[in-house]
Amino acid sequence: MARKVLVLGEVRDGQLRNVSHEAISAAKTVAEGGEVVGVLLGDSVQPLAEELIKNGADKVVVVENEKLAHYTSDGYAQGLLAVIEEEQPQGLIIGHTSLGKDLSPKIASKLHSGLISDVTSIEVTGGNIVFTRPIYSGKAFEKKIVTDGLIFATIRPNNIAPIEKDESRTGEVSTLAVDIKDLRTIIKEVVRKATEGVDLSEAKVVVAGGRGVKSEEGFEPLKELANVLGGAVGASRGACDAEYCDYSLQIGQTGKVVTPDLYIACGISGAIQHLAGMSNSKVIVAINKDPEANIFNVADYGIVGDLFEVVPMLTEEFKKLKV
Ligand code: FAD
């Protein structure tokens, strides 16, 4: 059954986040040959519409409003609900990012619809669209189908492959004027934490440090390794609590959930709350002095040793491969 499926394009620093392209790919599966409509909300976001089309959207609806220049759940909900009212889709896909996690329950409650959150794969089996999502902190997966009403899901970044970009693709871009009213939150200024480089939640390689890193300076070799691999630096809560790094780097149950192609855990014991944020990484390498550390139970490759010896050696070897 062909469906019309909306995808919210998530914009950060004037760029579309990768998860938006992954969401288009997910929407194609849900649409089953129907129409995939990108939605852009913001101020001066129209130039990004072509990008969504080249990445697979059939059409894009743009809502430009200065009150949408910064994300607020009130403002975005009004913008997105107006597009939903206009387009009457049968499906809606949003990235399971901080924005998506905040916005999607609000949209679902306004529409009185269900919501399948944190989806890691979607397939069509036996005439059903089957959504797979992790449960019990990633120890098991459940499969869900929607039997009635809007098919609404948020997708975990880095899990659903985007479709190949086609520079020659064309599609309709339209604008919708929405009067955004009664915002209860007004963003005056956005002050970024000083985290450089690749976005942790979308990184293909994550080098994470735990309490074993021992100090703020102890993170330097990890940063170097991440740099050589084009990855991002993450941390356990142990390292954040010890003030070796900022909480924005925390991975786990109460931090970020990451699914990179390669996760290198350095001096992290592997507490269940940490595993909740990284155990679905495609390849896990653990470096720990303690051969009994729990992190080795989820690791594909384990290195028993001192991270201050092992990490620089890895960096040097990867540098050679890059030359
Ligand atoms: P430790 O457990 O102290 O482990 C340090 C490891 O470093 C040890 O295994 C040690 O052998 C190794 N080591 C030491 N020196 C070296 C060296 N030179 N070379 C190599 N290895 C070395 N934790 C999270 O990470 N994320 C969360 O989101 C999170 N949420 C939580 C939520 C709740 C409600 C609770 C109760 C806890 C949460 N925790 C979370 C905390 C979690 O339980 C652990 O305390 C924490 O993950 C431990 O961090 P760690 O592995 O860095 O430290």
From TrEMBL:
PANTHER family: ELECTRON TRANSFER FLAVOPROTEIN ALPHA, ELECTRON TRANSFER FLAVOPROTEIN SUBUNIT ALPHA, MITOCHONDRIAL. Transmembrane segments: none annotated. GO terms for molecular function: electron transfer activity; flavin adenine dinucleotide binding. It comes from the Bacteria. It comes from Robertmurraya siralis. Binds 1 FAD per dimer. Residues 5-195 form the Electron transfer flavoprotein alpha/beta-subunit N-terminal domain. GO terms for biological process: fatty acid beta-oxidation using acyl-CoA dehydrogenase. Belongs to the ETF alpha-subunit/FixB family. This is Electron transfer flavoprotein subunit alpha. FAD binds at residues 211, 236-237, 250-254, 267-274, 288. The gene is etfA. InterPro entries: DHS-like_NAD/FAD-binding_dom, ETF_a/b_N, ETF_a/FixB, ETF_alpha_N, ETF_asu_C, ETF_asu_C_CS, Rossmann-like_a/b/a_fold. Its cofactor is FAD. Keywords: Electron transport, FAD, Flavoprotein, Transport.
